[in-house]
Write a structure and sequence with these properties.
Low-confidence stretches: 1-11, 213-230, 415-457
Mean pLDDT: 80
Strand content: under 5%
Order of helices and strands: HHHHHHHHHHHHHHHHHH
Distance between the termini: 34 Å
Largest sheet: none
């Protein structure tokens, strides 16, 4: 081993962490994002089959998805506190069991027993575990991002989108081959569970992202000094406006997840497999944009990127809603996906700008954003029965417009606009999906990277 290689593996971060450990941590989080996207999109891709199984109206599908939304909100109410108390790795470990177990259970309840009420309850458990898992891996990813000193959240969410691409592809194949719902989603759940348990050992405590305590903090911890009073993050205008930005963009993303396949099937009279395939176009556009988005953020900053994202999403939606032909609707779907791609990860990064309040602010922003999952499915379902599923999507156009207007609230704090280098060189954990990003994202090796500057208080 060369002296240079040894030096690059030496501790360069707070608490004696080596660069190898930090990269392994980041790559493990990327895989956990991928598994979340793969599993959730596998469910979403079979929603047309679920509708057929229950012979359900759009409003009834909205009720079914409302169970998922209620569970998601309940998860958000406890996620931040659980991560603060037990750490992200412990929380994700429990959620992995609940999430993938609920995915398989939901498929069996629908496909074997045909119970609508049972499906609502199992989807509530799915939503609860998924939202808690989501907050935990976002907090862990944000902590890792602070250590690396460059923007990585869009890329991590890009891996989520890679997972949704794979899930949508498998879903479309399962629809075309008429594979039973219970078999398809049980296999997906089993594969995802095993993979998650393997990579979790590389996830480190997010507290390691902060510099060691200074003298004043030690005195506060020992009770010698009183801790300064902090106002609630819910009274911070910047945090609330970031939450509203993310709400609009999450609504654009979440509505596509829940309704795009059905909108194409019912609005353009396509078959189920083709509708699911068009959903795959949406997630592919999101994936590409998230990987390329780090360069756009580096060059232009958050505000112009968020404004452009809102504009793309709005134009894409209008094409989907009013296009006279399927081809233009597919182009609109791609624009919609590209526009919806960066809102959530950029909002999470903005909320986590200040490490000491990152958990509270990220949880608050995520809670506001998940409000879209609470009101979105039933609202779109009810509107669809009244004005048609395509016209119901006009609500999202308005929300993306609001997100664009409020985008200045996510402006980088001083010192946050850093050079972006994305690498996947860690030998600890790797991903086959890396090659997709290499055309636009600079891949650097452990041997030739300049070590990060030392962190100061």
């Amino acid at each position: 081993m060369t002296a240079h290689h040894s030096a690059s593996n030496a501790a360069q971060y707070p608490h004696g962490l080596s660069h190898r450990q930090v990269l392994s941590w980041r790559n493990a989080i990327a895989i956990l994002f991928t598994l979340a996207g793969f599993s959730f999109a596998s469910w979403v891709g079979r929603i047309p089959t679920v509708r057929d199984a229950f012979d359900a109206s759009h409003s009834e599908i909205g009720v079914l998805l409302f169970g998922l939304a209620i569970g998601s909100i309940l998860g958000l109410l406890v996620a931040g506190r659980l991560v603060d108390r037990f750490g992200a790795r412990a929380v994700v470990s429990v959620c992995v069991l609940l999430f993938f177990g609920a995915l398989a259970a939901t498929a069996i309840i629908i496909g074997v027993f045909g119970s609508f009420i049972g499906a609502v309850f199992s989807l509530a458990v799915l939503g609860l575990s998924f939202s808690t898992y989501d907050v935990a891996i976002n907090l862990s990813g944000a902590a890792n991002e602070r250590l690396l000193g460059r923007s990585t959240m869009p890329t991590l969410h890009g891996f989520y989108s890679l997972g949704t691409m794979a899930g949508a592809g498998f879903g479309a194949g399962a629809e075309a081959l008429h594979i039973p719902l219970a078999l398809h989603l049980s296999v997906v759940a089993g594969i995802a569970f095993i993979t998650a348990m393997i990579v979790l050992r590389f996830v480190l405590p997010e507290t390691l992202a902060d510099a060691p305590l200074n003298t004043q903090e030690i005195k506060i911890a020992s009770g010698e000094l009183a801790a300064p009073k902090l106002r609630s993050v819910w009274r911070e205008p910047r945090t609330i406006m970031i939450g509203v930005i993310v709400l609009g963009m999450a609504f654009a993303e979440g509505t596509a997840v829940d309704w795009l396949a059905l909108a194409m099937v019912d609005g353009y009279e396509l078959d189920n497999a083709f509708g699911t395939l068009i959903f795959g176009v949406f997630v592919t556009a999101m994936t590409v944009t998230r990987f390329l988005g780090v360069r756009a953020l580096d060059r232009f900053g958050r505000v112009p990127v968020l404004r452009a994202s809102a504009g793309l999403a709005g134009v894409g939606l209008l094409l989907v809603i009013f296009s006279p032909v399927v081809v233009l609707a597919v182009i609109g779907t791609a624009l919609w996906g590209a526009g919806a791609a960066l809102g959530f990860p950029v909002g999470i990064s903005a909320a986590a700008d200040e490490p000491k309040r990152a958990t509270a602010r990220v949880t608050a922003v995520a809670t506001i954003a998940y409000g879209a999952t609470l009101i979105g499915p039933p609202m779109i379902g009810v509107l669809s029965d009244q004005v048609g599923v395509l016209n119901a999507l006009l609500v999202i156009v308005v929300l993306t417009f609001v997100s664009g207007i409020l985008s200045p609230a996510a402006r980088e704090l001083a010192g946050r606009h850093a050079r972006i280098l994305i690498d996947f060189a860690s030998p600890g954990t790797t991903s086959a999906a890396v090659s997709i990003a290499t055309t636009e994202v600079e891949i650097i090796s452990l041997d030739d990277e300049t070590p990060p500057p030392p962190l100061h208080r």
